[in-house]
Amino acid sequence: LAVLLPFTLKAESNEIPVKYYDSISEDEEGNKLAFPSFVYAEPFRNELYVINQTSIIIYTKDLFPIFTLSRKNDIETPQGLTIDAEGNLYIAQSATKDIPRHRISVYNVCFKWVHDIYIEGFEGAESFVPYRMAVDKNGNIYAASSYFPGIVILNNNGKFLDLLTVEDEERKVKLNNVILDETGRIYIVSEEEGHIYVYDENRKFLFKFGEKGGSTCKLSRPQAVAVDNRTGKMYVVDYMRHTVSVYGKDGKYLSEFGGLGWGEGWFQHPKDIAVDSAGRIFVADIFNNRIQVFQINE
What we know:
Elements: E1 3-10, E2 15-24, E3 36-41, E4 48-52, E5 55-59, E6 65-69, E7 78-83, E8 89-93, E9 103-107, E10 113-117, E11 130-135, E12 141-145, E13 151-154, E14 160-164, E15 167-168, E16 171-172, E17 177-180, E18 186-190, E19 195-199, E20 205-209, E21 222-227, E22 234-238, E23 243-247, E24 253-258, E25 272-275, E26 281-285, E27 290-296
Antiparallel strand pairs: 1-2, 2-27, 3-4, 4-5, 5-6, 7-8, 8-9, 9-10, 11-12, 12-13, 13-14, 15-16, 17-18, 18-19, 19-20, 21-22, 22-23, 23-24, 25-26, 26-27
């Protein structure tokens, strides 16, 4: 049962109530989540993928856990993931003792390992640790690393195609996340700058939004952005302010929700965010050991 939270999002002409919908806190065996750091709303089967330390838990659209990928599937250090239109799964993994190279592990639609992609072919590749990823309609992979000045673009076989860099005030910006919406727009997060940079599907810069700071309307340490493809609204999760900031499709700040706390609708250092095709908002509330689910009535 949805519960109305004690806050609303201010729209231009009315108030949009934000409702707490549910929390995901267990896997399919009933084990409690432990520091879930990533959430991905899969757009083709409407499944939800959650990275829970060293495993990936898959939930149905009804939020029922059905499967876990873990060490038995050669998954040890998952950082982020994405899925292409064919159902292939791409998982960013950092180096381990047994595999001392950072990589993107590729699995087919049956979750069978296909091959690993190692990042190479450009200056600085040895320091690039794949962290967050997205796939465009052509199957090209966009990969972000933590605090690396560029988004690496690969084809689906792992061949290096290009490095998308962001320049702001005549210097290259360090980046930490990337997503694409259903139109192909590219959204790139810079925690360092407190901005989100938006490009069209041809990688032409459109605009940036967000303002660095530690108070209301500002972004202290933005970790991720999610887009509601139905409305164009953008949601940015802020690790240090324990909030989700809401922006219109033009980047205009609308409002925010959350704050530091332990109850429903409050966060402890949220790390990631996703929006599914129904407009539900999923927040990886890492130190509260849960994925919180919200619904906005519009």
